[in-house]
Amino acid sequence: MRTLNRAGDARAAAEDSLEDYAFRYVPRSFRRWSALSVGGTALGSIAFLADFSIGASIGLEHGTANAMLGILLASVIIFAVGFPVAYYAARYNLDLDLVARGSGFGYYGSIITTVVFAGFTCIFFALEGAIMAQGLAVAVGIPLPLGYVISTVVVIPIVIYGMRALERLQFWTTPLWLALALLPLIWIVGTQPESVVEFVEFTGLSDGEVSFSAIVASAAVCFALTPQLAEQIDYIRVMPPRTARNSRSWWVSFVFSGPGWVVFSGTKQLIGLFLAVYLVTKVDPMIGDRAVEPVAQFLGMYESLVPDWLALAL
Is 239 helix (H, G, I), strand (E, B) or coil? Predict the structure, then answer.
């Protein structure tokens, strides 16, 4: 019996799909994906909905102008700080723990870095689970506590198989997500151009003036997403070697899926702000704080375009 158990353990340890080389160098034999494939998978990881809520929250508080400048300020700083860290992770195929050690922070510094990342991941996981549970409650009436459990458990079979399963999942779901998020938005902007004017002129709870303090306050909220770079590193560390043949695709994939994740994150924050303003000014002026909830944002957008039953399904 003990021999059988050992044989099973050996097979599991040798199974490529269960190995992600955590806390160590990723060997060349594992890095068999193209640069574009790795980049696309890494970008799929930032499809989280919290960005929409963040953009809406700071916009309703400080107005469109201050929120946009705050998002831009935070994005520029996060990109600049994250670029060298992401580059060495992608170039030398190291995770954040090894990058922290190599940067001179030592063993204890790498532990602190890992704890910060782990804490961010747990908090973010709970936040996204809460958003998904809200969606299940609205769509099919599942109680929130049960929705939390479902939203948490459903991802375990996917992530346990590492990069191979995630690459396949992102390949099929990312285009669908983009279509459901962007096509209705483009339709609204095209058919209701006055909504863009109202968005630009929206002042929120501020006096309508562009204020340095409001810009910094908006940026401070966005800075909370900085540890997301660590998750991007978990993907781009499996980038293939950079050669003369793949140099262009390697750099494009690295820039946009590494430090450039914040460009897409900032764009989603602006979309969340636009949807919140659209709800407040066009759909339901009495919606109040619910305008910052991604579920309410997308449901309101869909209901303005299609029948209610189809909006719920989407």
Answer: coil
DSSP letters spanning 16-29: GGG---TTSPPPTT
Q: Measure the N-to-C terminal CA separation of the chain; round to a whole number of Å.
A: 51
- Residue type present at position 119: G
Question: pTM of the predicted model, to two decimals?
Answer: 0.85
For the record, the structure tokens of 306 come out as 């299609």
> Nearest to residue 35, comparing CAs of 239, 260, 242, 244?
239
Name which of 212, 222, 209, 266 is nearest 64 in CA terms: 209
What is the dihedral sign for C-alpha 163, 169, 173, 177? Answer: negative
pLDDT (tens digit per residue) in 7-63: 454 454 445 445 566 656 676 667 777 888 888 888 887 888 889 999 999 999 998
Cβ(194)–Cβ(281) below 8 Å:
no
Domain chopping of the chain, boundaries? 30-84+163-313
Measured distance CA(12)–CA(20) in Å, rounded: 13
Q: How many helices (H) and strands (E) does the chain have?
A: 16, 0
Count other Cβ atoms within 10 Å, centred on residue 79. 19
Tokens found for residue 97? 């723990």
Q: How far is CA 304 from the centre of its chain?
A: 26
